[in-house]
Amino acid sequence: MNLLPGVFVAKKKDGSTYYRSSITFRNKHISIGSYSTNEQAHQAYIEANTILTDSSIYIEDYDTSTPLLTLSKWIVLVNFRDNNIYFKNPIYIKEKYFLYYLDGKTILKFDVDDLFYYSNHKIQKRGGHLFVSDYGMQVSILSRYGIKNYAVLERDYQFANGDPTDFRYGNVQIINRYHGVNRIQHKGTFIYVAKIHLNGDYIIGKYKKEEEAAVAYNKAVHILQSKGFDKNFPTNYITEIDEIEYAKIYNMVKISKKIREYLPIF
């Protein structure tokens, strides 16, 4: 069989034949994809070569009706042509940030500080959550901002410009950083409410400072545990204050009478 330019023959485990397409550009060998026919693989090679050599072709020109190239591969090729940096993931570098194309409609923005990480970690979406696979575990991309897995948008964190696809650090604002602590508006200012879940939500107290509410939550956990309550509550690690300040707040912070007098049911 005469293989067309850019095409290589390969075998599946069952012995059947398929065709791989690849191209070399700026001394970089790039795999384009696998195809069922020699002609399809060659046509994909032609399309890839056209993208790499014609700067008038943009990401927006991708045609879903004849997808010999995946959208991801199209983006990879356009970025390599324009920025001379090859990534396996669908990234396009802008002047001060980069775009990550989750799909044709969802385009995420990140600071260049995250470029190395996301060039090596593929972003996936499941159940509305964005995550990467890291050491065999699914890790939420929000964890890079110190946002907990159970965090709720607009309650625990928000996007400053209202764009939930803009993950640049200056745009992601944490509202509630600690377990059991919620920020609420009260009489024109913000206060912090500490709650703990027993057989329902119990208010521990209301506090002027976030750190006070976080310490109050920890203290409530210790009170309940001293009463024999064996639920495995998470506790807060508070980096903004030292051990002396923590002990001072812990001793002075007031805890709801309902918590202090709560008796677990065994």
UniProtKB/TrEMBL annotation:
GO terms for molecular function: DNA binding; DNA-binding transcription factor activity. It comes from the Bacteria. InterPro entries: AP2/ERF_dom_sf, DNA-bd_dom_sf. This is AP2/ERF domain-containing protein.
